[in-house]
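Journal club prep, notes for RB
We'll compare a predicted complex against what the paper describes. Inputs for the zinc ion case:
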Amino acid sequence: MDIATTPTNPQGNPEIADAAPTPQDPPVIRREDYKPFPWLVPSTKLAFFLGLEETRVSATLKVEPNPAAEAAATLRLNGDGITPLAVTVDGEDTDAWEMDGPDLVIPLSAAPHEVSILNGIKPSANTQLMGLYASNGMLCTQCESEGFRRITFFPDRPDVLSVYQVLMEGDPSAFPILLCNGNKVAEGVRENGTHWAEWHDPWPKPSYLFALVAGDLVANSKPFTTRSGREVECNVWVRAEDLERTDHALESLHRSMKWDEDVFGREYDLDLYNIVAVSDFNMGAMENKGLNVFNTKYVLADPDTATDADFDAVEGVIAHEYFHNWSGNRITCRDWFQLSLKEGFTVLRDQLFSQDMRGEAVKRIEDVRILRAAQFPEDGGPLAHPIRPDSYREISNFYTATVYNKGAEVIRMMRSIVGEKRFRAGTDLYFYRHDGEAATCEDFITAIEDGAGVDLTQFRRWYSQAGTPRVTVRQAVEGDSLVLTLNQHVPATPGQPDKLPMPVPLRVAVHSRANGTLGDEKLIILADAEQAFTLPLDGPDPVVSINRSFTAPVVIERALQSEDLVFLAAQDNDPFARSEALQELAVSHLVGIASGEFSAAEQAAGEAAIIDAFRSSLADAALEDAMRGELMVLPSETYLFEVMASGARKADPGAIHTAREGLKSAIGAALADELQALHARASAVMLDDPAGRGARKVKTLALALIAAADPARAATLAAAQYDAADNMTDRQGALMVLCGLDHPARAEKLAAFHERYSDNPLVVDKWFTLQALSLHSDVIQHVRDLAEHPDFTMKNPNRVRSLHMAFAGNPKGFHAASGEGYRMVADVILALDPINPQTAARFVPALGRWRRIEPVRASLMKGELERIMAAGNLSRDTFEQVSRSLEG
Ligand code: TRP
Ligand code: ZN
């Protein structure tokens, strides 16, 4: 092969090059412009000559005209930051190619051909962590969404499926383990001492599911036998020092494999399942076929270094990536606008799995809390988009809570409407009908319609309309019935001024407060803008519990008397409904105070009602601690902003923070004895006790409430909890409370924690996060100092998130009236953008919410966005987010 060192035609055709976008105006990609690729790529052979500084890649693609597409006279292969060193067509070296911007364009007659390309990449210089990169001396890849084009030239789009055969070759001392998708088919050692492995993945896949890993790794292994009796080798690969923390991940994988067989009828389809943990990773994990790559955060766990919540997160992410094998890999997406096809469905699947593993109500409460805190603000802000977006400039910006979590809610609504059994018939049909295909959201909806026997015509609006519907509720007694009049309104969002009504499934029950009787649950579907429903009445003082188990992702607007909410919070037979009633009580109270709408008397009455509700959940012996803990969590400040900022009213972060802390302090003072008794009882429960998890949860929640009322007492209790702790949950909880206090124990325990865990990066991350999230009045200065700490680096996304993302989510620091918090986050965006644009762009939405915030802060936030824009030279990722935040 004739290896040129410079491309023959680096600039490409000047006409085309001129039409290429300047970095400051990346083109808009539209869903309606979809066209199939003119070529099929039945097989792809790759050879990697691995090195941290330099890796050579040779790619051989068999191509043939796609009968389902318009013929083309050229083959356009995507590239990004790479240059061809040699190109051959049908075995002949050729110069007849050109670069069009980043892409390689090769003229080709409409017949089958074999195209080979050689190029080189520099993994150690790859700070974006997309494509092939180095992490801790090992090599790994991240290809979703468009990282494969940073490795080699290829039609890098999810609807081009190919069978991959991959040769990996490298220095056995640097890279003793060589992993790729599928099965290892051969391996050996060359005369020069390098070793090699050849891998074959029998399942055709899009390029975004390609992966390789090369490094010094060890595995925790345990075979899984599928329901048809096949044995699957399961490995969790980590660095040797981490091996002892991998059992939970491996067991979670086995539980996921079994659950998907039992609940969705899905069996695994290879004889090998590899999971690799890497410490530099942009997201949580990646579902590459047969070779999942994980952030260490979602693999490593033991009680000394991981909290109970960390254990749950590991289990959930392991399950999520495993479930993608069917919802994502066997059936993939036609184009990236269909991302929710795999992500929304897979999130629903992992949520249902975790509900089965750990209890339905608690998991549902947590998922709804995340939706309200993370997705509702997206829907209400300048970056609002439907779960199936219509356009983007940079697809990485659409890996959002809307596509993932609201996407899951939308499919959950289908399941609620048709019931579990018919939903399963629908998903069976979907998996059968589209296996091996790149499908669309429309394909999914049609399969559910046909399989479950339901008409989802109007329901499709959930895919095309952005915005969280507001449902208002009025109730009137008519004879022995209750008439519920419901109204729905979907707020305008950028590009979508007018909305149509959507089917809103609502599980409701009508109780009688006077009789203390609980009515039966019933599903109603609000399909029109306004609709009345007649429900049977059980007795006087009817109390309606609505949107039970959160059947629809909407905001319910109603003014219920606080006696009714206290009754629901204490008496409802559905624990989810109890928690919702408490939330409703707290939201209306806190928003009422923050907006100055309450008189002192109203404020006192509201506070008393909430304290009553807390008192009864603390005293309720029938309640498990895991649920009691959920009832002790007040609504998040971000959700309170959303509720406060409705209509002409703006959110006042300062007033909300003061109101919420004031309520915590009132609860802590009024229930001081009960909380301290709870803390003492929970502290007596041992680590191995089955009730231990619940006890640990309420222990720290009690401490936090005590701290709001009596910091000195809380500091003593927290220091004691820290010293007595034999697990990370208690230790982190104690330190969390101490971090918010001005007390000598704060510095003392922080130093002890850092020293104890200084060689464990995931725990050092916690050390940063606890300080960045704290309620301490000097939090801004703390974060400034921490950014200069020797352990801090902008190059590791976990570390950046542990400090700066945590701070951006700390309402007290971020929304400081001086605007310093906003300035710090803008500085982070500017500093991080050239290093890791994907991660940098994730900081923008926090500033983007300015329009819903009171005018003084709004202008400070907007000013920072303008400063970022004026800096110029922004990545596509950050440019898109900042410009939309200023326009929206
Ligand atoms: N598909 C991955 C998941 O859901 C998401 C993901 C991992 C990702 N790494 C990424 C998305 C990098 C964009 C960029 O689990
Ligand atoms: Zn996913």
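Talking point for the session: Residues 1-22 have pLDDT under 50 and may be disordered.
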